[in-house]
Every structure is written in C-alpha cells, then in structure tokens.
Design a protein that fits this description.
Bifunctional protein GlmU, 17-stranded parallel β-sheet, 10 helices, cell shape, binds calcium ion, UDP N-Acetylglucosamine Acyltransferase, domain 1, Spore Coat Polysaccharide Biosynthesis Protein SpsA, Chain A, binds uridine-diphosphate-N-acetylglucosamine, acyltransferase
Length: about 450
C-alpha cells in the first residue's frame, strides 16, 4: 500500500473569531476543532501526521500532544506557505499526502478515506474534496472547463461576479502526490487580493504542467463547514451535536428532547438510559444502563453506574455507583465517590468525599474531605467542618453511624462504627465505637419568663 501522510493547517490567527483563544482551539462539543480533525485523520492509516502551528503553538501542542508532529510557521503568509513548512519532514518521501484545515471540525475519516481512494483510482497528482453549497460565500470556488474538468480554484475575494455564482466549493481538504505537492508549492506566488500564498494555486500549477487533477464531490455538505467566526462556530456545534445525539439514540439511549441536550463528543451512555431535556454532559462523562438523568443536570467527567436516578444536579470529576438516587439540586464536587444504593437528597454538597453503600444523606448536608462508611444516616443540616481558614482536615465516619440533625463534625475527627451522635452536637473529639456523643449546651427552662420578656418589650 502507498504510504499516507497528513498535514493539518492550524497556524492561522483566526482574526475573524475576535478571540483571545487561538482559533483552532475553540471547542466544538467539548473538543478543540483541530483535535476533532486530527482524531478523524488518525483513524486512517497514516505514517505521519504533521500539524502546522503558529503563534500560540504551545497551546495547540499541549492539546494534541503525541497525536501529531508539529512544525512552526513563524509568519502566517498563507495556506501554501503553511504546507511548505512541512518540507523538511515530508518532501523526500514517496506516497500521498492529505491536507486538511484545522478549522473544519466536521470532516469525517470515511470521507477522507474515500477521497484518497478516488485520488488513486484517478491516478491524479492532486484531488480536491469539493461540495455544493446553497450559499458558497467566503469559500474558494471550483472552476471547471466546458467538459467539466477542474481547471483551478478561485478564492472568493479574487473571484469575478460570474465566478462567485459558482456553488461548488473547495472544502480545504485535498489529497496530493507528495512529491508533486512540494514541487508545485515552490512555484506559488502571492499575487492576489490578500497578498497570501494560496494552497489552492497548486491546482493550476499542476494543471499547467499537464498533470491529472481531480475533484471528489461529497454529498454531505455539512462536513465542509469551515469555522471562521462565532456564527459558524455555533453552527458547527449544532451539527456536531446532532451527529452525537443521533448516534446515541441509535445505540439505544432515549433523549427526550435532542434539541436541548448538550453532549460532548467523548461521552458514553448505556442502553435504556433516559436523558431529559436541558441536560449537559461534558468531558469524559460515562453513564451506565437504565439510568434517568433529569432536566437540569450538568455533569463534567462524571462516571455513573447502572439504574441510577439523578435529578437536576451538578457533578464534576466524580464517581457514582449503581442504584443511587441523587438530587434534586445536589452538587458533587471533584473526587466524590458515591457507592451503590446511596441516597443523596436535595441541597447536599460533597467534595473529596467517599460515601459507602446504603448510606443516606437526605437533605441540606455538606461533606468535604470525608470518608463515610456503610449504612450511615447523616441528618439534615449536618456538616463536616473541614477548613479552619488555613488547612483542610479529614472527617472519618464508620459503618452504621447515626449522625443527628444539625451536627458539626470539626475535623480532623474520627467517628467509629455504630456510634450515635445526638442532634445539634458540635463535636471536636473522636467518638469511640458504639458510643453516644452529645456535644451541646444543656437546655435551661425558666418558668414564667416568657411573660416577663413580653412585658419588658411592650413598655
Ligand atoms: C481556505 C481556502 C478556501 C477554502 C476554505 C475552506 C485558501 C487560500 N483558501 O479559505 O479555498 O474554500 O479554506 O474552509 O487556502 N492557515 C495556516 N497558515 C496560514 C494561513 C492559514 O496554517 O498562513 C490555516 C488556518 O489556521 C486554517 C486553514 O489554514 O485552519 C485555512 O485558513 P483560513 O484563513 O481559514 O482560509 P479560508 O479563508 O477559510
Ligand atoms: Ca477557514
């Protein structure tokens, strides 16, 4: 098989985004645009993937890490100049090279694979991936001769009125004979409306040397969307969201209202789980089977077991087991680990807390830096006092403990198995196994005093 290489163009400033964030790093459904592109390319059998980076290169490299090699384009002089930066790495190699823009996040590996196949069938030196758009504004147009053979690409800004009426566009993805590409690149000039070295000019240069140039027109025009501004970014997110939601529904997940369900691309959800409207699932969230995730949930890197019901709650970087009930309005902050059959009710917040099997935190509770055993009942209003303004300390609660309502557990503190804490206690000392701990002032009743107070204030 011919060796295959890929070049991803990601050095452009992205001025039309009007952003401090580097254009290709703007996320679409939770993943930077350029990473979508590189991940799709990686599904093909590539000998090398080279990403051309510009200013802000460190950020792009940090995101892509070992998914790609990197070459820096110091000055952004155009797409042809960008590709030329890969010369040292690629120019002497035999094979085919696909070039893809880092700002076309919807492009799919199957399409690029089909492009490469078509390119070799046509024995072409260059093949452009094209599509037909109702509104081709801004894209390079494909100009064909009377026989329908591709002649060249004209950029929107350089096109005559007649050329602008052409609806077939350059998607910015190409397949080249690698050696022919680098030879032609050296002949590209910047004599055009933008004063840039245009990669599409390579097409005319190859044509002029009587090489075969082909165009592969794809049906699914949505894949071609190039994101140059925030309007296109929103459109790309909408299209990607549709794609993700449709895949999940086909895999057996019920989305009650896909139009208001926001699921990042790497999220996994098991069969027969129901996701209600207005739910956001981010990052590497994984949800098991037969769960119910109700309206208003927002999870980021949450790992949820099977048959768990979560209502209107937020979860970050945490794990939740099977048959758990959470919410409404609970907040699981990072490193919470909720074991099977736990109940976490409304207005409960956990942080770095392990909650053992069958334990209940039914309402208005804060547990931070805590380890809670099995079969524990934590009463309403109880909190772990984990922070003294300087240090965080740990609260450990054993199995079968009963924590009465409105208890303050001043950490560090250890409540052993089977202990019972009286409601309203403020505990500063460890509680031994099986003990009753009462940590509150004694009540004093002053007979007849109520009347005296009323008289005093009515004077
Ligand atoms: C480009 C194509 C256009 C095509 C469109 C598809 C050119 C001249 N035009 O236009 O025919 O229809 O894509 O979306 O190629 N980049 C660099 N270095 C540079 C300039 C750009 O790496 O010096 C990168 C950008 O980061 C971007 C990609 O190349 O990822 C395309 O550049 P952009 O300026 O967005 O080109 P378009 O005007 O969209
Ligand atoms: Ca673009």
């Amino acid at each position: 098989m011919t060796n295959q290489y890929a070049i991803v163009l990601a050095a452009g400033q992205g001025t039309r985004m009007k952003s401090k964030l580097y254009k290709v790093l703007h996320p679409v459904c939770g993943k930077p645009m350029v990473e979508h592109v590189v991940d799709q390319i990686a599904q093909l059998d590539m000998k090398k993937i080279v990403t051309i980076v510009g200013h802000g290169a460190e950020d792009v490299q940090e995101h892509l890490q070992d998914k790609s090699e990197f070459v820096k384009q110091e000055e952004q002089l155009g797409t042809a100049h960008a590709v030329l930066q890969a010369k040292e790495l690629l120019a002497d190699l035999d094979g085919v090279t696909i070039v893809v823009c880092g700002d076309t996040p919807l492009i799919e590996s199957a399409t690029m694979g089909a492009l490469i196949k078509y390119h070799s069938e046509k024995r072409a030196k260059a093949t452009i991936l094209t599509t037909q758009l109702d509104d081709p504004t801004g894209y390079g147009r494909i100009l064909r001769d009377d026989l329908g053979i591709v002649e060249r690409i004209v950029e929107h800004k350089d096109a005559t009125e007649k050329e602008q009426r052409v609806q077939e566009i350059n998607t910015g993805t190409y397949c080249f004979n690698n050696r022919a590409l680098f030879e032609a690149l050296s002949k590209v000039s910047n004599d055009n409306a933008q004063g840039e070295y245009y990669l599409p000019d390579v097409i005319k240069i190859l044509k002029d040397s009587d090489e075969v140039v082909a165009a592969y027109r794809m049906e699914n025009f949505e894949e071609s969307l190039g994101v140059n501004d925030r309007v296109a970014l929103a459109e790309a997110s909408r299209l990607m969201r549709n794609r993700i939601n449709e895949r999940l529904m086909r895999e057996g997940v019920t989305l009650v209202d896909p139009n208001s369900t926001y699921i990042d691309v790497d999220v996994e959800i098991g069969q027969d789980t129901v996701i209600e409207a207005n739910v956001t699932l981010r990052g590497n969230t994984k949800i098991g089977e037969d769960c119910l995730i109700s309206s208003g949930c927002d999870f980021d890197n949450a790992v949820i077991g099977n048959r768990t019901i979560i209502r209107s709650s937020a979860i970050e970087d945490s794990k939740v087991g099977d048959d758990v009930q959470i919410g409404p309005f609970a907040h699981l902050r990072p490193e919470s680990e909720i074991h099977n059959h736990v109940k976490i009710g409304n207005y409960v917040e956990t942080k770095k807390a392990i909650v053992g099997e069958n334990t209940k935190l039914p309402h208005f509770i804060y547990m931070g830096d805590a380890e809670i055993g099995k079969n524990v009942n934590v009463g309403c209003g109880s909190i772990s006092v984990n922070y003294d303004g300087f240090n965080k300390s740990k609260t450990v609660i054993g199995d079968n403990v009963f924590v009465g309502c409105n208890s303050n557990l001043i950490a560090p503190i250890n409540v052993a198995d089977n202990a019972y804490i009286a409601a309203g206690s403020t505990l500063t000392d460890d509680v031994p196994e099986g003990a009753l701990a009462v940590g509150r002032a004694r009540q004093v009743n002053k007979e007849g005093y109520a009347k005296k107070i009323v008289e005093k204030f009515n004077k």
